[in-house]
Structures are given as structure tokens and as C-alpha cells.
Amino acid sequence: MRYLILSDIHANRPALEAVLKDAASFDMIWCLGDLVGYGPDPNECVERIQGLEHLSLAGNHDWAALGQLSLDHFNLDAREANSWTREELWPSTREFLESLPTSMVQDDITLAHGSPREPVWEYLLDAGLAAINFRHFSTQICLVGHTHIPIAFVLNEENARCYPLVPPYSGPLALDPHRMILNPGSVGQPRDGDPRASYALLDTDARTWELRRVAYPVEITQERMRARSLPRRLIDRLALGR
Ligand code: ZN
Fold first, then answer.
1. In angstroms, what is the span from residue 183 Cα to ligand 1's centroid?
2. How far, in Å, is the centroid of ligand 1 from the Cα of 155?
């Protein structure tokens, strides 16, 4: 199977469309959560994913938009954007988001929004935290999002060392022989200094993980955010990838 791996779309429809076009052919989407929050088109993004063969997880922003998490957990800009999102959600979008699990195992691969230990909240930003998290899932591979930064953590079981593989990669990563935690980065709000949408293609037959970046019309998303009076800092950061 060829899975299109998306995470942190954050209601950014132009970025989502660019990714779907660039990925071209895939059997199914696995979406690792945070479909909404920050961006201007929460309902349209959810509807687009619903129309495609997919499995999705809930992220912290999805829960906040549903009122399942207090907005006190978020910084001021995120809080403001999330309050706006709450008001905007169509009943069908709410129903969809409410149905999403926070982690699952599919095709012998573990999926979580943040981490296998704390699926909704934990940020796997370094090898130390990743090393701990390898004890919290039993499959060889785990996929996570949440940090908006594409990275791979590899566990070498012979010497019990965990190390990060920071992109760009020279080509698709081989999934074998080690255990790995893989993060595709964010479709709708990248934070690694590259404003292009980030995603991955996981091929479970070829056993490869291919990380990809694709440019999208950032200014269209920014314009739509301005029209909705979303916070200035959230608008500006899209052009910076920060
Ligand atoms: Zn996110």
C-alpha cells in the first residue's frame, strides 16, 4: 500500500490542495490530526479529507475546537484562532472531529498525533524523548505529527542508541532494519524554516518513507485569514515557515 501521510493541516486549504496534487497517486490517506485550528478553512479541509479514502486521528487543536480541551492550554494567538474555529464549525465537521481516535495501529504501524505515550499533547522534539517513547508502542514503526517539524528518530536496538535523522534526505528512507518514529512535518503551518507544505509517502511494499515539500500560494491563505480577522502573527508566520 502507498499511504499519503498528512499532519497538521490546520485549516489551510491551498496547502492541502497543493499536497494532494503533488502526491498524485496513493491508495489511502493517513491524517495524524490537527485538521483545524489556526487557518481560515476548517470545514472545507475536513470535507476534502472526508471525500477521500482516509483514516484520521484527532489532535489537540481538533479537541479544543470541539470544546473538549480548555483554551487555557494554548498561547494567545492559538486561543483566538481556536475560539474563531469553534464558532465556525458546521455540525457535520463537529460530528466528524468527535468521531476521531487519538491513536491507532494500522497495517502493523502505530499512529499518534503527538507521541505514543501522550497521543494528544507530547511534542517529540529530541532523541531523548523519542527514546522513552519507543517503550510505549510495540510495532516497528510509529508515525507522529504535532511538532510541525519533519524528522525521523531511529532506535538502534544493538546499542540501545536513539538518533535523529534530520532532512533533507538524499532519497526515500528505508524502513528496515531498525525501529523508527517518523514525523512528516506540517501541511498547513510548517515550522522548520521552510514555508512549503510538508508531507510524506509511506510505501509498505517497497518499505520506504519519502518526505516531500511542495510550494503553495501562501498569500491566498494569508488573504483569507486577514478577511476573517485571524491573528496577525499567525498570518505572518506562514511566509516564514516558523
Ligand atoms: Zn498542530
1. 12
2. 25
